[in-house]
Amino acid sequence: MREAPWDTAGRPAVRADPSRRERIARAAISVVAERGVDGLTHRAVAAAADVPLGSTTYHFQTLDDLLEEALRHAADDNIGAIRAWESGLAPDGAFAEAMTDLVMGYVGENRSHTVVEYDLYIAALHRPALRPVSAAWDNALVEVFGRRTDPLTGRVLAGLFCGLLMQSAMADPPPSAEAIREVFRRAIEGPHTAA
Amino acid sequence: MREAPWDTAGRPAVRADPSRRERIARAAISVVAERGVDGLTHRAVAAAADVPLGSTTYHFQTLDDLLEEALRHAADDNIGAIRAWESGLAPDGAFAEAMTDLVMGYVGENRSHTVVEYDLYIAALHRPALRPVSAAWDNALVEVFGRRTDPLTGRVLAGLFCGLLMQSAMADPPPSAEAIREVFRRAIEGPHTAA
DNA sequence: AACCGGGGTGTACGTATGTACAGGTGCGGT
DNA sequence: ACCGCACCTGTACATACGTACACCCCGGTT
To answer: Which residues bind DNA (chains A, B) (predicted)?
Structure first.
Protein backbone atom coordinates (compact mmCIF):
# COMPACT_ATOMS: atom_id res chain seq x y z
CA MET A 1 0.00 0.00 0.00
CA ARG A 2 2.72 2.39 0.96
CA GLU A 3 4.10 3.86 -2.23
CA ALA A 4 7.73 3.83 -1.24
CA PRO A 5 10.59 4.44 -3.64
CA TRP A 6 12.33 1.23 -4.74
CA ASP A 7 15.72 0.87 -6.21
CA THR A 8 16.39 -1.42 -9.16
CA ALA A 9 17.19 -4.40 -6.95
CA GLY A 10 13.75 -4.33 -5.36
CA ARG A 11 15.00 -3.36 -1.95
CA PRO A 12 13.48 -0.36 -0.24
CA ALA A 13 15.65 2.68 -0.76
CA VAL A 14 15.21 4.16 2.68
CA ARG A 15 17.87 6.77 2.18
CA ALA A 16 17.77 9.79 0.00
CA ASP A 17 14.22 10.51 -0.97
CA PRO A 18 14.51 14.14 -2.01
CA SER A 19 10.95 14.16 -3.30
CA ARG A 20 9.66 13.29 0.14
CA ARG A 21 9.71 16.80 1.48
CA GLU A 22 7.86 18.19 -1.50
CA ARG A 23 5.39 15.30 -1.46
CA ILE A 24 4.54 16.16 2.13
CA ALA A 25 4.16 19.85 1.32
CA ARG A 26 1.83 19.04 -1.55
CA ALA A 27 -0.18 16.72 0.62
CA ALA A 28 -0.52 19.59 3.06
CA ILE A 29 -2.03 21.67 0.26
CA SER A 30 -4.71 19.08 -0.39
CA VAL A 31 -5.43 18.78 3.31
CA VAL A 32 -5.95 22.53 3.54
CA ALA A 33 -8.13 22.45 0.44
CA GLU A 34 -10.40 19.86 2.03
CA ARG A 35 -10.48 20.80 5.69
CA GLY A 36 -9.14 24.32 5.88
CA VAL A 37 -6.14 25.59 7.77
CA ASP A 38 -7.61 24.44 11.10
CA GLY A 39 -7.61 20.89 9.77
CA LEU A 40 -3.92 20.93 8.99
CA THR A 41 -2.36 18.40 11.37
CA HIS A 42 0.75 16.29 11.14
CA ARG A 43 -1.39 13.19 11.15
CA ALA A 44 -3.73 14.33 8.40
CA VAL A 45 -0.79 15.32 6.22
CA ALA A 46 1.00 12.06 6.89
CA ALA A 47 -2.10 10.14 5.87
CA ALA A 48 -2.59 12.21 2.72
CA ALA A 49 1.05 11.87 1.70
CA ASP A 50 1.06 8.20 2.69
CA VAL A 51 4.13 8.58 4.86
CA PRO A 52 4.59 7.72 8.52
CA LEU A 53 3.80 10.30 11.14
CA GLY A 54 7.42 10.71 12.13
CA SER A 55 8.29 11.68 8.59
CA THR A 56 6.27 14.89 8.67
CA THR A 57 7.83 16.00 11.94
CA TYR A 58 11.26 15.03 10.66
CA HIS A 59 11.11 17.11 7.50
CA PHE A 60 9.27 20.03 9.07
CA GLN A 61 10.24 20.93 12.57
CA THR A 62 7.00 22.76 13.25
CA LEU A 63 3.57 22.93 11.69
CA ASP A 64 4.11 26.55 10.75
CA ASP A 65 7.15 25.54 8.70
CA LEU A 66 4.98 23.08 6.85
CA LEU A 67 2.28 25.67 6.33
CA GLU A 68 4.83 28.13 5.03
CA GLU A 69 6.25 25.71 2.50
CA ALA A 70 2.78 24.67 1.41
CA LEU A 71 1.83 28.29 0.85
CA ARG A 72 5.00 28.79 -1.12
CA HIS A 73 4.24 25.83 -3.38
CA ALA A 74 0.62 26.83 -3.84
CA ALA A 75 1.58 30.39 -4.67
CA ASP A 76 4.30 29.26 -7.07
CA ASP A 77 1.88 26.94 -8.83
CA ASN A 78 -0.73 29.63 -9.14
CA ILE A 79 1.73 32.23 -10.32
CA GLY A 80 2.99 29.78 -12.91
CA ALA A 81 -0.55 29.03 -14.03
CA ILE A 82 -1.35 32.71 -14.41
CA ARG A 83 1.79 33.34 -16.43
CA ALA A 84 1.03 30.35 -18.64
CA TRP A 85 -2.51 31.65 -19.12
CA GLU A 86 -1.18 35.05 -20.14
CA SER A 87 1.40 33.72 -22.55
CA GLY A 88 -1.26 31.61 -24.22
CA LEU A 89 -3.50 34.57 -24.90
CA ALA A 90 -4.05 35.96 -28.36
CA PRO A 91 -1.92 39.11 -28.56
CA ASP A 92 -4.82 41.35 -29.54
CA GLY A 93 -7.70 39.50 -27.93
CA ALA A 94 -10.39 41.01 -25.79
CA PHE A 95 -8.85 41.08 -22.35
CA ALA A 96 -12.08 41.34 -20.39
CA GLU A 97 -13.29 38.11 -21.94
CA ALA A 98 -10.01 36.40 -21.18
CA MET A 99 -10.11 37.46 -17.54
CA THR A 100 -13.69 36.30 -17.29
CA ASP A 101 -12.68 32.87 -18.53
CA LEU A 102 -9.89 32.86 -15.99
CA VAL A 103 -12.25 33.64 -13.13
CA MET A 104 -14.83 31.12 -14.29
CA GLY A 105 -12.16 28.46 -14.42
CA TYR A 106 -11.04 29.21 -10.88
CA VAL A 107 -14.62 29.19 -9.63
CA GLY A 108 -15.52 26.00 -11.44
CA GLU A 109 -13.17 23.15 -12.13
CA ASN A 110 -10.22 24.70 -10.27
CA ARG A 111 -12.25 25.77 -7.27
CA SER A 112 -10.06 23.81 -4.88
CA HIS A 113 -7.02 25.80 -6.01
CA THR A 114 -8.90 28.96 -5.27
CA VAL A 115 -10.02 27.81 -1.86
CA VAL A 116 -6.57 26.76 -0.75
CA GLU A 117 -5.00 29.92 -2.11
CA TYR A 118 -7.31 32.12 -0.07
CA ASP A 119 -7.01 29.89 2.97
CA LEU A 120 -3.27 30.27 2.97
CA TYR A 121 -3.51 33.92 2.03
CA ILE A 122 -5.66 34.70 5.05
CA ALA A 123 -3.54 32.51 7.29
CA ALA A 124 -0.72 34.93 6.54
CA LEU A 125 -2.71 37.69 8.26
CA HIS A 126 -1.86 36.03 11.57
CA ARG A 127 1.65 34.86 10.55
CA PRO A 128 3.89 37.70 9.41
CA ALA A 129 6.49 35.22 8.13
CA LEU A 130 4.07 34.13 5.42
CA ARG A 131 3.25 37.58 4.13
CA PRO A 132 6.08 37.90 1.61
CA VAL A 133 4.77 34.82 -0.17
CA SER A 134 1.28 36.26 -0.37
CA ALA A 135 2.70 39.59 -1.51
CA ALA A 136 4.57 37.81 -4.31
CA TRP A 137 1.27 36.44 -5.53
CA ASP A 138 -0.22 39.94 -5.56
CA ASN A 139 2.76 41.38 -7.38
CA ALA A 140 2.61 38.66 -10.01
CA LEU A 141 -1.02 39.52 -10.67
CA VAL A 142 -0.21 43.21 -11.02
CA GLU A 143 2.64 42.44 -13.37
CA VAL A 144 0.75 40.02 -15.58
CA PHE A 145 -2.39 42.09 -15.84
CA GLY A 146 -0.37 45.26 -16.28
CA ARG A 147 1.58 43.82 -19.16
CA ARG A 148 -1.62 43.44 -21.17
CA THR A 149 -2.89 46.89 -20.32
CA ASP A 150 -0.82 49.44 -18.43
CA PRO A 151 0.70 49.51 -14.93
CA LEU A 152 -2.14 51.40 -13.27
CA THR A 153 -4.84 49.31 -14.90
CA GLY A 154 -2.85 46.27 -13.87
CA ARG A 155 -3.19 47.30 -10.24
CA VAL A 156 -6.91 47.85 -10.70
CA LEU A 157 -7.36 44.46 -12.31
CA ALA A 158 -5.26 42.67 -9.73
CA GLY A 159 -7.36 44.04 -6.90
CA LEU A 160 -10.58 43.44 -8.79
CA PHE A 161 -9.56 39.90 -9.71
CA CYS A 162 -8.70 39.11 -6.12
CA GLY A 163 -11.96 40.40 -4.73
CA LEU A 164 -14.20 39.20 -7.51
CA LEU A 165 -12.74 35.72 -7.43
CA MET A 166 -13.25 35.45 -3.69
CA GLN A 167 -16.80 36.73 -3.91
CA SER A 168 -17.55 34.38 -6.79
CA ALA A 169 -16.14 31.38 -4.96
CA MET A 170 -18.40 32.30 -2.06
CA ALA A 171 -21.60 33.02 -3.94
CA ASP A 172 -24.15 30.30 -4.31
CA PRO A 173 -25.00 30.07 -7.10
CA PRO A 174 -21.88 31.66 -8.61
CA PRO A 175 -22.40 34.71 -10.76
CA SER A 176 -22.84 34.25 -14.48
CA ALA A 177 -19.96 34.74 -16.88
CA GLU A 178 -21.88 37.61 -18.40
CA ALA A 179 -22.06 39.43 -15.07
CA ILE A 180 -18.34 39.05 -14.55
CA ARG A 181 -17.58 40.10 -18.09
CA GLU A 182 -19.55 43.31 -17.63
CA VAL A 183 -17.54 44.18 -14.57
CA PHE A 184 -14.18 43.60 -16.22
CA ARG A 185 -15.24 45.53 -19.30
CA ARG A 186 -16.31 48.44 -17.16
CA ALA A 187 -13.05 48.32 -15.26
CA ILE A 188 -10.89 48.23 -18.38
CA GLU A 189 -12.76 50.52 -20.70
CA GLY A 190 -14.11 52.98 -18.19
CA PRO A 191 -17.64 54.31 -17.81
CA HIS A 192 -19.81 54.38 -20.91
CA THR A 193 -20.44 58.04 -21.30
CA ALA A 194 -22.69 57.64 -24.31
CA ALA A 195 -25.81 59.67 -23.72
CA MET B 1 -13.58 39.77 39.51
CA ARG B 2 -16.33 38.23 37.53
CA GLU B 3 -18.51 40.99 36.15
CA ALA B 4 -21.81 39.35 36.86
CA PRO B 5 -25.15 41.09 36.66
CA TRP B 6 -26.48 42.12 40.08
CA ASP B 7 -29.96 43.00 41.00
CA THR B 8 -30.79 45.94 43.22
CA ALA B 9 -30.60 43.86 46.40
CA GLY B 10 -27.00 42.88 45.78
CA ARG B 11 -27.74 39.23 45.18
CA PRO B 12 -26.50 37.61 41.99
CA ALA B 13 -29.28 37.48 39.44
CA VAL B 14 -28.48 34.07 38.04
CA ARG B 15 -31.55 33.93 35.91
CA ALA B 16 -32.32 35.85 32.80
CA ASP B 17 -29.22 37.37 31.33
CA PRO B 18 -30.31 38.02 27.76
CA SER B 19 -27.11 39.87 26.97
CA ARG B 20 -25.06 36.83 27.83
CA ARG B 21 -25.41 35.15 24.46
CA GLU B 22 -24.41 38.26 22.56
CA ARG B 23 -21.54 38.96 24.94
CA ILE B 24 -20.18 35.51 24.19
CA ALA B 25 -20.57 36.00 20.46
CA ARG B 26 -18.73 39.30 20.62
CA ALA B 27 -15.99 37.77 22.69
CA ALA B 28 -15.67 35.14 19.97
CA ILE B 29 -15.08 37.92 17.46
CA SER B 30 -12.19 39.30 19.47
CA VAL B 31 -10.73 35.83 19.90
CA VAL B 32 -10.81 35.30 16.15
CA ALA B 33 -9.26 38.71 15.62
CA GLU B 34 -6.34 37.85 17.86
CA ARG B 35 -5.72 34.18 17.20
CA GLY B 36 -7.55 33.39 13.98
CA VAL B 37 -10.32 30.89 13.42
CA ASP B 38 -8.06 28.02 14.54
CA GLY B 39 -7.72 29.69 17.91
CA LEU B 40 -11.46 29.81 18.48
CA THR B 41 -12.10 27.50 21.43
CA HIS B 42 -14.79 27.38 24.05
CA ARG B 43 -12.22 28.10 26.71
CA ALA B 44 -10.67 31.07 24.94
CA VAL B 45 -14.10 32.57 24.34
CA ALA B 46 -15.15 31.96 27.92
CA ALA B 47 -12.04 33.72 29.17
CA ALA B 48 -12.52 36.65 26.79
CA ALA B 49 -16.18 37.02 27.73
CA ASP B 50 -15.38 36.45 31.40
CA VAL B 51 -18.01 33.75 31.77
CA PRO B 52 -17.60 30.18 32.97
CA LEU B 53 -16.75 27.51 30.46
CA GLY B 54 -20.11 25.82 30.82
CA SER B 55 -21.81 29.02 29.77
CA THR B 56 -20.39 28.94 26.26
CA THR B 57 -21.42 25.36 25.69
CA TYR B 58 -24.81 26.08 27.15
CA HIS B 59 -25.63 28.99 24.87
CA PHE B 60 -24.02 27.47 21.78
CA GLN B 61 -24.42 23.77 21.35
CA THR B 62 -21.50 23.50 18.97
CA LEU B 63 -18.51 25.63 18.05
CA ASP B 64 -19.83 26.09 14.54
CA ASP B 65 -22.97 27.64 15.94
CA LEU B 66 -20.82 30.10 17.82
CA LEU B 67 -18.74 30.82 14.75
CA GLU B 68 -21.87 31.40 12.72
CA GLU B 69 -23.33 33.86 15.17
CA ALA B 70 -19.99 35.64 15.49
CA LEU B 71 -19.78 36.00 11.72
CA ARG B 72 -23.30 37.33 11.67
CA HIS B 73 -22.50 39.96 14.29
CA ALA B 74 -19.24 40.96 12.63
CA ALA B 75 -20.90 41.27 9.24
CA ASP B 76 -23.78 43.27 10.70
CA ASP B 77 -21.37 45.61 12.41
CA ASN B 78 -19.33 46.11 9.29
CA ILE B 79 -22.36 46.62 7.11
CA GLY B 80 -23.64 49.18 9.58
CA ALA B 81 -20.28 50.92 9.61
CA ILE B 82 -20.18 51.11 5.82
CA ARG B 83 -23.68 52.51 5.66
CA ALA B 84 -22.83 55.05 8.32
CA TRP B 85 -19.72 56.01 6.39
CA GLU B 86 -21.75 56.49 3.23
CA SER B 87 -24.46 58.54 4.83
CA GLY B 88 -21.83 60.80 6.35
CA LEU B 89 -20.29 61.61 3.01
CA ALA B 90 -20.61 64.96 1.35
CA PRO B 91 -23.22 64.51 -1.38
CA ASP B 92 -20.97 65.75 -4.15
CA GLY B 93 -17.56 64.85 -2.78
CA ALA B 94 -14.83 63.06 -4.64
CA PHE B 95 -15.73 59.41 -4.21
CA ALA B 96 -12.27 58.00 -4.94
CA GLU B 97 -10.85 60.02 -2.07
CA ALA B 98 -13.61 58.88 0.24
CA MET B 99 -13.03 55.24 -0.60
CA THR B 100 -9.32 55.70 -0.07
CA ASP B 101 -9.95 57.05 3.39
CA LEU B 102 -12.20 54.09 4.06
CA VAL B 103 -9.53 51.62 3.05
CA MET B 104 -6.81 53.42 4.99
CA GLY B 105 -8.98 53.34 8.08
CA TYR B 106 -9.57 49.61 7.75
CA VAL B 107 -5.87 48.99 7.21
CA GLY B 108 -4.79 51.20 10.08
CA GLU B 109 -6.74 51.76 13.25
CA ASN B 110 -9.51 49.32 12.37
CA ARG B 111 -7.19 46.62 11.14
CA SER B 112 -8.56 44.09 13.61
CA HIS B 113 -12.04 44.50 12.12
CA THR B 114 -10.60 43.78 8.72
CA VAL B 115 -8.72 40.73 9.87
CA VAL B 116 -11.69 39.16 11.59
CA GLU B 117 -13.97 39.92 8.68
CA TYR B 118 -11.72 38.10 6.24
CA ASP B 119 -11.09 35.29 8.67
CA LEU B 120 -14.77 34.63 8.99
CA TYR B 121 -15.32 35.23 5.30
CA ILE B 122 -12.80 32.56 4.38
CA ALA B 123 -14.13 30.22 7.04
CA ALA B 124 -17.38 30.26 5.10
CA LEU B 125 -15.61 28.66 2.15
CA HIS B 126 -15.56 25.43 4.14
CA ARG B 127 -18.93 25.93 5.83
CA PRO B 128 -21.79 26.40 3.38
CA ALA B 129 -24.12 27.45 6.19
CA LEU B 130 -22.09 30.62 6.66
CA ARG B 131 -22.09 31.71 3.03
CA PRO B 132 -25.35 33.67 3.07
CA VAL B 133 -23.89 35.93 5.74
CA SER B 134 -20.79 36.57 3.67
CA ALA B 135 -22.92 37.16 0.60
CA ALA B 136 -24.93 39.75 2.51
CA TRP B 137 -21.71 41.64 3.19
CA ASP B 138 -20.86 41.59 -0.53
CA ASN B 139 -24.31 42.75 -1.50
CA ALA B 140 -24.18 45.60 0.96
CA LEU B 141 -20.93 46.78 -0.57
CA VAL B 142 -22.39 46.66 -4.06
CA GLU B 143 -25.45 48.54 -2.94
CA VAL B 144 -23.61 51.26 -1.03
CA PHE B 145 -20.95 51.86 -3.64
CA GLY B 146 -23.51 51.66 -6.43
CA ARG B 147 -25.69 54.29 -4.82
CA ARG B 148 -22.88 56.83 -5.13
CA THR B 149 -22.07 55.90 -8.72
CA ASP B 150 -24.16 53.46 -10.74
CA PRO B 151 -25.01 49.78 -10.31
CA LEU B 152 -22.29 48.45 -12.59
CA THR B 153 -19.62 50.68 -11.11
CA GLY B 154 -20.86 49.62 -7.71
CA ARG B 155 -20.05 46.02 -8.57
CA VAL B 156 -16.61 47.04 -9.80
CA LEU B 157 -15.89 49.01 -6.65
CA ALA B 158 -17.18 46.27 -4.37
CA GLY B 159 -14.84 43.73 -5.92
CA LEU B 160 -11.98 46.16 -6.02
CA PHE B 161 -12.54 47.23 -2.43
CA CYS B 162 -12.60 43.63 -1.26
CA GLY B 163 -9.40 42.70 -3.06
CA LEU B 164 -7.54 45.90 -2.42
CA LEU B 165 -8.36 45.90 1.26
CA MET B 166 -7.16 42.35 1.64
CA GLN B 167 -3.95 43.06 -0.24
CA SER B 168 -3.37 46.22 1.75
CA ALA B 169 -3.90 44.45 5.07
CA MET B 170 -1.34 41.91 3.94
CA ALA B 171 1.29 44.24 2.54
CA ASP B 172 4.16 45.28 4.74
CA PRO B 173 4.52 48.17 4.65
CA PRO B 174 0.96 48.97 3.57
CA PRO B 175 0.56 50.90 0.34
CA SER B 176 0.41 54.66 0.48
CA ALA B 177 -2.90 56.48 0.36
CA GLU B 178 -1.78 58.03 -2.88
CA ALA B 179 -1.30 54.64 -4.52
CA ILE B 180 -4.76 53.53 -3.45
CA ARG B 181 -6.32 56.78 -4.56
CA GLU B 182 -4.84 56.37 -8.03
CA VAL B 183 -6.38 52.94 -8.33
CA PHE B 184 -9.85 54.07 -7.26
CA ARG B 185 -9.69 57.09 -9.53
CA ARG B 186 -8.73 54.92 -12.46
CA ALA B 187 -11.54 52.49 -11.64
CA ILE B 188 -14.19 55.19 -11.36
CA GLU B 189 -13.16 57.59 -14.07
CA GLY B 190 -11.79 55.13 -16.58
CA PRO B 191 -8.55 55.24 -18.52
CA HIS B 192 -7.02 58.63 -19.15
CA THR B 193 -7.12 58.77 -22.89
CA ALA B 194 -5.47 62.12 -23.11
CA ALA B 195 -2.71 61.89 -25.67
C1' DA C 1 34.45 -7.83 6.17
C1' DA C 2 33.65 -4.94 9.94
C1' DC C 3 32.17 -0.64 11.37
C1' DC C 4 30.18 3.79 11.74
C1' DG C 5 27.33 7.68 10.76
C1' DG C 6 23.27 9.81 9.58
C1' DG C 7 18.74 9.78 7.54
C1' DG C 8 14.22 7.77 8.58
C1' DT C 9 10.44 5.69 11.67
C1' DG C 10 7.29 4.03 15.35
C1' DT C 11 5.87 4.94 19.82
C1' DA C 12 4.98 7.19 23.98
C1' DC C 13 3.85 11.26 26.67
C1' DG C 14 2.08 15.65 28.25
C1' DT C 15 -1.35 18.84 27.05
C1' DA C 16 -5.43 21.11 25.29
C1' DT C 17 -9.84 20.53 23.47
C1' DG C 18 -15.07 19.46 22.84
C1' DT C 19 -18.63 17.81 25.26
C1' DA C 20 -21.61 15.62 28.74
C1' DC C 21 -23.75 15.92 33.00
C1' DA C 22 -24.77 16.06 37.93
C1' DG C 23 -25.64 19.47 40.99
C1' DG C 24 -26.92 24.12 42.67
C1' DT C 25 -29.88 28.27 42.86
C1' DG C 26 -33.53 31.40 42.73
C1' DC C 27 -38.25 32.39 40.54
C1' DG C 28 -43.19 31.43 39.73
C1' DG C 29 -47.15 28.77 40.69
C1' DT C 30 -50.25 26.92 44.27
C1' DA D 1 -44.98 28.61 52.95
C1' DC D 2 -43.68 25.22 49.92
C1' DC D 3 -42.08 23.08 45.85
C1' DG D 4 -40.96 22.06 41.05
C1' DC D 5 -38.53 23.66 37.35
C1' DA D 6 -35.70 25.95 34.20
C1' DC D 7 -31.52 28.20 33.96
C1' DC D 8 -26.83 28.08 34.83
C1' DT D 9 -22.13 26.34 36.26
C1' DG D 10 -18.00 23.58 37.61
C1' DT D 11 -15.96 19.33 36.86
C1' DA D 12 -14.70 15.12 34.74
C1' DC D 13 -13.65 12.32 30.72
C1' DA D 14 -12.51 10.61 26.21
C1' DT D 15 -10.07 12.05 22.36
C1' DA D 16 -6.79 14.11 19.26
C1' DC D 17 -3.01 16.74 18.94
C1' DG D 18 2.25 18.34 18.70
C1' DT D 19 6.46 16.85 19.81
C1' DA D 20 10.46 14.24 21.57
C1' DC D 21 13.31 10.47 21.18
C1' DA D 22 15.13 5.82 21.26
C1' DC D 23 15.73 2.63 17.75
C1' DC D 24 16.50 0.75 12.91
C1' DC D 25 18.57 0.31 8.62
C1' DC D 26 21.62 0.93 4.81
C1' DG D 27 25.54 3.03 2.22
C1' DG D 28 30.11 4.43 2.33
C1' DT D 29 34.76 3.97 4.41
C1' DT D 30 38.73 1.67 5.76
So the answer is: 41-60
